Amino acid sequence: MKKASAARGNTTSGFAPFPIDAVITWVDGEDPRHMAKRLKYGNDDILHADDVAGSTRYASVGEILYCVASLNRYAPWLNNIYIVTDEQTPPVAPFIEKHFPDGHIPMEIVDHKSIFRGYEENLPTFNSISIESMTWRIPGLSEHYIEFNDDLILAAPTTPEDFFTSDGKVVCYGKKENILLVWLTRLLKYRPNGNKKVTFKETMVNAALHTGEYLSYIKMHHTPKALLKSVYEKYFTEHPQLLRHNISYSFRSHKQFNPQETQYLTLAREGRCTLRKVSANLLYLKAKHDTKYIQNKLSGFSAKPMFKFACFNSIDQASDEGQRIITEWIYKRLHLY
């Protein structure tokens, strides 16, 4: 993919004291080749479970365009943008070059085969947890990087210190919570067919247990995740069996752990992680078909111009009118008109 020129159109400023990259995981689930692979490797129970491999987990209705555009608009200090895919190429370049004609952040497509080198027996994978366990292996990735799902955008100007503090700490948007409460509700998380539901919270708790934290965990939210490559490299070098376990599932499993949680708990133990409240930073839109809900939420979002992050969960589940309203709001927020 074409590299950006030095000049970049943006509405914010800021210079990173060290290189900081962005990593975005993306898939086009409507791609016939990708659909065929999912059908080949997944059974009916797996493919119809939204928490595991339901179609909405792979749907793409332009989110990657808005995610990349938001980085160029509100984090022009980024060094590179890496888009991690499975033998696909998102239609990002023409969109970004149109809206940022004076230059944009360099972008590069990274295939799963690249980050799973040496572990090819675990491909293909349709599992976001497995993929996120391997992003630190992107060739050329900077020590400091920020991980995004493609349904995330930056919604206001940011600086490097929103992610990495001047005294060397990693910023995590979350808070400590008691694990015991999670244990009390675990028995209620079973499906009628006996399969345990896969939840974001469960994978965080699993990570806490793997790192020796039995009383509390850091409850993260759907925000960008600031990470250090060397922390993953050290942890998985010392615990190779955990890496192999986590990437061995083609589809999400309740037996997996959230690798980001593992990193934050490790850093917190070393005094290298600072927690910040998410309530004053995150705009979150749930996956709903209800257009009235979408209108009300976006109206509330507009009243919070300095909230830095926005997550649009499963836009594909909104009505056509709802999707149009969401898209218009994003265009306005990112100054793309």
Quick structural overview:
The protein is α/β, with parallel strands linked by helices and 337 residues long. The protein has 13 helices and eleven strands. The strands form three sheets. The chain has a five-stranded mixed beta sheet with strand order 3-2-1-4-8, sandwiched between helices. The protein has a three-stranded mixed beta sheet with strand order 5-11-10.
Keywords:
three-stranded mixed beta sheet, alpha/beta, 11 strands, 16% strand, 337 residues, Spore Coat Polysaccharide Biosynthesis Protein SpsA, Chain A, 13 helices, five-stranded mixed beta sheet
Secondary-structure blueprint:
Elements: E1 20-25, H1 32-41, H2 44-47, H3 63-74, E2 81-85, H4 92-99, E3 107-111, H5 112-115, H6 128-132, E4 144-149, E5 152-154, E6 170-178, H7 179-185, H8 200-210, E7 216-220, E8 225-228, H9 229-238, H10 240-246, H11 259-269, E9 273-276, E10 282-285, H12 291-302, E11 309-312, H13 320-333
Parallel strand pairs: 1-2, 1-4, 2-3, 6-9, 10-11
Antiparallel strand pairs: 4-8, 5-11, 6-7
Helix pairs in contact: 3-4, 8-11, 9-10, 12-13
